[in-house]
Every structure is written in C-alpha cells, then in structure tokens.
C-alpha cells in the first residue's frame, strides 16, 4: 500500500470516527463542522462524499442534542449552513457534481424546515447569479424542485 492510499484511509477513518451520539459543546460542534467542510475540497471523491454525508448527519445530531441536553442551544441554522454552502459552491467550480451530491444527502434534513428553506434560497441564488459555471440549469432546477417539495411536505407534517 502506498503513502497516498494510507493517507486517504486515515482521513476516512478520522471522518468516520467522530462520534455523532456524544454531547458536544457549541465550540466542539464548530470544530467538527470546520473539519468536515475542509474535506469538501479534497481531491479524493470518496473523502469528499464522506465529508458531505457527515456534515448532513452532524446537522441532525447537533439539532437533536437539544432534546438530550436541556441547556444546549444549537447554532442557528443560518449561521451553521452559510459557511458550508459557501464552501460547496466554491468547490463546485473545481469539482462538478458536488452541489447535486450535497442535495442528495441533504434530503435527510426534511424535519428541519429552516434548513430546507435556506438550501432552497441558496439554490435560487446559484441559479440567478450563475456563480457555479459547472452547474447546468437542469441540475439546479432538479435540486430546487426536490427541496421545494420537501418544504411543502415538511409543513404538512407539522
């Protein structure tokens, strides 16, 4: 096994080994999200995918922690998601398909209407500003429709 393969495996192990069932302070959550966001731009596709998947899982875990720890207040959805979405949009130009991959995993956020609305707004901005040259109109529209219906469906559940 070569050094590059060892590095990839150690990064994957690091990303997988951050526990989602432990109680974290807000600062620990910030560090965790920053670490995952850092790997969105990794050259290895599996690491990028794992980082995106873990970001979405961590959003859920952070929000569920308020039910497990009475005095815990998670980061506001707007503050939490803004740097993540910025990193994804930036990286989309270097790694086409990242926005679509994020949207696939972000479907798990259906119970968090505020996140869905922020992602939908972000997609609308991407379509209007054309800041990601690699994104086709069809791809953005597909993601917009997915999140629009999730917002509508989520409102019906509440």
Structure, described:
- With 158 residues, the chain is mainly alpha-helical.
- It has one domain.
- The chain is built from 7 helices and no strands.
- The longest helix is centred in the middle third of the chain and has 24 residues.
Element order: H for helix, E for strand: HHHHHHH
E-strand count:
0
Chain-averaged pLDDT: 88
The major sheet is characterized as: none
Brief summary of the model shown:
With 158 residues, the protein is mainly α. The protein contains seven helices and no strands. It has helices spanning 3-17, 26-38, 45-68, 77-92, 98-106, 113-129, 137-157.
Key terms for this structure?
single chain, 158 residues, 7 helices
How are the SSEs ordered, and which strands pair?
Layout: H1 3-17, H2 26-38, H3 45-68, H4 77-92, H5 98-106, H6 113-129, H7 137-157
Helix pairs in contact: 1-3, 2-3, 2-4, 3-5, 4-6, 6-7
